[in-house]
Amino acid sequence: xxxxxxxxxxxxxxxxxxxxxxxxxxxxxxxxxxxxxxxxxxxxxxxxxxxxxxxxxxxxxxxxxxxxxxxxxxxxxxxxxxxxxxxxxxxxxxxxxxxxxxxxxxxxxxxxxxxxxxxxxxxxxxxxxxxxxxxxxxxxxxxxxxxxxxxxxxxxxxxxxxxxxxxxxxxxxxxxxxxxxxxxxxxxxxxxxxxxxxxxxxxxxxxxxxxxxxxxxxxxxxxxxxxxxxxxxxxxxxxxxxxxxxxxxxxxxxxxxxxxxxxxxxxxxxxxxxxxxxxxxxxxxxxxxxxxxxxxxxxxxxxxxxxxxxxxxxxxxxxxxxxxxxxx
Length: 328
Ligand code: BYC
Hints:
Elements: H1 18-29, H2 42-61, H3 63-67, H4 76-101, H5 107-115, H6 133-150, H7 159-187, H8 191-210, H9 222-227, H10 235-253, E1 263-265, E2 270-272, H11 278-288, H12 292-305, H13 307-327
Antiparallel strand pairs: 1-2
The chain binds benzoyl coenzyme A.
Benzoyl coenzyme A is lined by residues 50-51, 54-55, 58-59, 62, 89, 120, 122-123, 138, 142-143, 146, 149, 210-214, 219-222, 225, 231, 235, 285.
């Protein structure tokens, strides 16, 4: 894969630059942006590459569950919308890989880590899409969770990440509305269509809550990421915000959220929800979810099948460069 010019940034930092550190601390304390040209601690750089590459891989792997339904969309209009959405996700992945490249990590290195199973991507994309209503549930729940998580990332301290998130969030909010609208239409349909919508919500609800990561006391990265103004809220705070947002929307749709413990807590002013299955979450993260093997195999095959495109593009670029040299 092509390497961007910014991939030349050193990945091993001289971590004892007192002036650089003082400037970095100052920028963080002032809630300003760190840019690629700025000195930054090696641990800050590494943490960003960890999160941004995980995010980029999520967008790219996240294309698969929905792509599964493009050829079976129920109408031309739905097919066109779904194709555009999946294409947007490819774009999000590319912005994010570019942001990570500004930190000195080449894209082919990130790709290799993904297909070798050394890199993470969101747990949610290891669940199967069994019916058309899953496109509605993914848009409403998965993109809804993504927006809740990602809007605060528009204020992340690293400039290229924050700027990528602004554009991504605009598109995610369209994605979420289209999912809601699919479910709304199904909920106004036949009993079978309503049952299909409820079944999809039943299967995607808990995994979408797990997208926010482990409970705060088990979140190894949160404290440092928040101190560096990368994350602005803890995993549990965002999860709570998401549940509070979902309850009135579920009511408007006429679907039931599959949690018998869900109740409004007068004392906190929030919707209390039941314990999530964290064992299942760890299994999915450990590569043992329903679709982990299939998702990585598909990504690997797509890369291998695309070899001729990369070769053709490189040959064309060489030809252009030769022509330019001869003309000079
Ligand atoms: N799945 O210390 P923690 C989309 C890992 S796609 C997998 O709390 P952190 C869309 C975590 O990486 C966009 N792994 O971590 C696309 C860490 O492992 P390492 C999806 C998870 O980073 C197509 C360990 O567990 N959104 O919207 O502070 C169609 C401990 O966790 C998960 C993003 O990627 C998980 N759910 O917080 C539709 C958001 N949760 O790295 C929609 C960007 C945790 O120490 N990422 N882990 O080995 C983030 O905001 C944060 O990284 C997280 C986790 C909130 C996910």
